[in-house]
């Protein structure tokens, strides 16, 4: 095999890696989602992150550019900024730093939005469809720079209060208090 | 072969001409702005056809007529050259005159368009969303300001001012029977003024590609006589009727409890979302999903159960309602008149 062919094969393989980045579902399943979802029954644990049960859906939504951009739209539509500001925190905790009270995994963030958390976070499980909660969870992780920077949303068209999601976040820049 | 082809053409011609009139056609003007534009379209088209025919005739003559042959290849035909020079000069001059003439014509047409409706009494703010139209009727008294969607009601025979803007991408409002296109641009306000000369229902369409469902982003302009318009506006200003007890009342609970209210507003209830269309008087509108479906109980249920089957990529999510919940919420929504 000549060097050129080897290079072409390598380049193709590298390009194939990007195939799932934008994968979207133009027609989500309209049937009622009756799958039982795991619910964590206790909020008490001795320090550290309590692992949330893993979910097959997490794979589909996390690190997917389309789902994260939908999540970004919903973040502003559903006024998450009302408590979390633009991620810097206000009445609710900051989302762009590296402090995750209830876990940083996409399953944990999904459970936080779906079931709510003590001291203020309401439950949106009955208000927001499950797919949209997963989109929000995937996006919230990108705010802290936890999602792949190749798939995270880029710069806004208007003025932003923080670096865009595909830049190193406040957490990795060490600006977090 | 030839006669049958001619027959087919004769058969299709009326079908094409039928497209020239109707509730969405620039060639069937129902207002001064559209009339001006239709005049311009016809004049441009006819003149271009005439020029094209003339060119084709001259070209045919030039091809068919044999050039005079000279025995001496170096002989100079002074008379022939003079005539050719004159013909070409006249043709170039005529082209210039036609082009300048058409430019002037479109300039004066633009001036006429700009002068239409400068004293508009009705101001309506139209905001483009992916993929629907938010329509807000402005008034000096805040209590008389009302928001609706996908239908613009205007008084017939009066100048109307539309203030156009967008929240996401560039859209373009085009109601061919009434006026020309004008873009809705995020962060900018464009003003479109027109007069609907006679009462009627005119269809409009987004005329700037704006995403997956650009083709399903239509709206209806309803022009009514002034008293009917006032009566409609008064009805529109009222909050929604409380639903009768039973299934519709249960539907309201579903609407408020299952997340419809995260995006939609129904005045008179707790639902106050502004990112989706206002549904206060949903059932009084003639279409669903921005001109995608006709308003009916069945279409309403289909739309809620599977919006992506009708408009793939639409921002309305699958709500995952059960059969009973769907029935209840449709019973509630179809009474919002």
Task: Give the gist of this structure.
With 177 residues, chain A is an all-alpha fold.
* Overall geometric form of chain B: elongated
* Average pLDDT for all residues of chain A: 80
Give me the count of strands of chain B: 12
Low-confidence stretches of chain B: none
**Beta-strand proportion of chain B:** 15-25%
Gyration radius of chain A, rounded: 18 Å
- Structure annotation, total helices of chain A: 7
CATH fold category name of the domain at 64-154 and 162-177 in chain A: Cytochrome Bc1 Complex, Chain D, domain 2
| Intertermini distance of chain B | 58 Å
Number of domains of chain B: 2
Explain what you see.
- The complex is a heterodimer of chains A (177) and B (337).
- Chain A is mainly α.
- Chain A has a domain at 64-154 and 162-177: Cytochrome c-like domain (Cytochrome Bc1 Complex, Chain D, domain 2), CATH 1.10.760.
- Chain A has helices spanning 3-16, 56-61, 65-77, 81-84, 106-115, 130-143, 170-173.
- The longest helix of chain A is centred in the first third of the chain and has 14 residues, at 3-16.
- Chain A is globular, with a radius of gyration of 18 Å.
- The N and C termini of chain A lie far apart (55 Å).
- The mean pLDDT of chain A is 80.
- Helices cover 40% and strands 18% of the residues of chain B.
- The longest helix of chain B has 38 residues, at 78-115.
- Chain B has 337 residues and is an alpha+beta fold.
- Chain B has helices at residues 2-18, 32-64, 78-115, 226-237, 247-257, 297-305, 307-310, 323-333; strands at residues 122-129, 132-137, 146-149, 151-155, 159-166, 171-174, 182-184, 190-195, 200-206, 218-224, 287-288, 293-294.
- In chain B, strands 3-2-1-5-8 form a five-stranded mixed β-sheet. Chain B has a five-stranded mixed β-sheet with strand order 4-10-9-6-7.
- Chain B folds into two domains: 22-64 and 84-224, Immunoglobulin-like, CATH 2.60.40; 247-333, Cupredoxins -  blue copper proteins (Immunoglobulin-like, Sandwich).
- Classes of the chains: A mainly alpha (177), B alpha+beta (337).
- At the A-B interface, helix 6 of A face loops of B.
């Amino acid at each position: 095999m000549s060097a050129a062919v080897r290079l072409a094969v390598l380049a193709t393989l590298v390009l194939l890696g990007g195939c799932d980045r934008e994968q979207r579902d133009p027609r989500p399943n309209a049937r009622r989602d009756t799958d039982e979802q795991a619910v964590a029954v206790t909020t008490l644990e001795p320090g550290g992150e309590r692992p949330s049960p893993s979910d097959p859906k997490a794979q589909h939504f996390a690190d997917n550019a389309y789902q994260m951009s939908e999540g970004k739209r919903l973040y502003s539509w559903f006024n998450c900024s009302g408590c979390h500001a633009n991620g810097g925190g206000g009445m609710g905790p900051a989302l762009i730093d590296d402090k995750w009270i209830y876990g940083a995994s996409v399953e944990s963030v999904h459970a936080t939005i779906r079931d709510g958390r003590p001291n203020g976070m309401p439950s949106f499980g009955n208000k927001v469809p499950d797919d949209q909660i997963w989109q929000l969870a995937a996006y919230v992780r990108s705010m802290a720079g936890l999602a792949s920077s190749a798939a995270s949303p880029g710069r806004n068209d208007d003025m932003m209060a923080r670096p865009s999601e595909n830049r190193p976040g406040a957490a990795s820049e060490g600006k977090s208090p | 072969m030839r006669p049958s082809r001619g027959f087919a053409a004769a058969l299709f011609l009326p079908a094409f001409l039928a497209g020239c009139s109707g509730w969405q056609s620039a060639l069937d003007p129902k207002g001064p702005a559209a009339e001006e534009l239709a005049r311009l379209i016809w004049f441009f088209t006819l003149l271009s056809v005439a020029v094209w025919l003339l060119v084709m005739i001259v070209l045919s003559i030039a091809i068919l007529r044999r050039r005079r042959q000279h025995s001496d290849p170096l002989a100079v035909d002074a008379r022939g050259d003079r005539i050719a020079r004159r013909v070409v000069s006249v043709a170039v001059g005529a082209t210039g005159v036609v082009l300048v003439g058409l430019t002037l014509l479109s300039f004066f047409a633009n001036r006429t368009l700009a002068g239409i409706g400068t004293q508009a009494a009705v101001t309506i703010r139209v905001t483009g969303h992916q993929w629907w139209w938010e329509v807000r009727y402005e008034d000096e008294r805040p209590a008389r300001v009302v928001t609706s969607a996908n239908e613009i009601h205007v008084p017939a025979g009066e100048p109307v001012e539309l203030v156009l803007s967008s929240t996401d991408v560039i859209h373009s409002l085009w109601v061919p029977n009434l006026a020309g296109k004008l873009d809705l641009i995020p962060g900018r306000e464009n003003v479109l003024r027109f007069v609907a000369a006679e009462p009627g229902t005119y269809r409009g369409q987004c005329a700037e590609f704006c995403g997956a469902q650009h083709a399903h982003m239509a709206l209806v302009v309803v022009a009514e006589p002034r008293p009917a318009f006032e009566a409609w506006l008064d009805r529109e200003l009222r909050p929604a009727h409380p639903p009768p007890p039973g299934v519709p009342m249960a539907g309201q609970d579903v609407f408020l409890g299952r997340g419809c209210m995260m995006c939609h507003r129904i005045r008179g209830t707790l639902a106050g979302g502004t990112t989706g269309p206002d549904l206060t008087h949903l059932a009084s509108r003639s279409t669903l999903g921005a001109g995608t479906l006709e308003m009916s109980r069945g279409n309403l249920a289909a739309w809620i159960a599977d919006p992506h089957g009708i408009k793939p990529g639409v921002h309305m999510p699958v709500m995952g309602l059960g059969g009973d919940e769907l029935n209840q919420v449709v019973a509630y929504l179809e009474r919002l008149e």
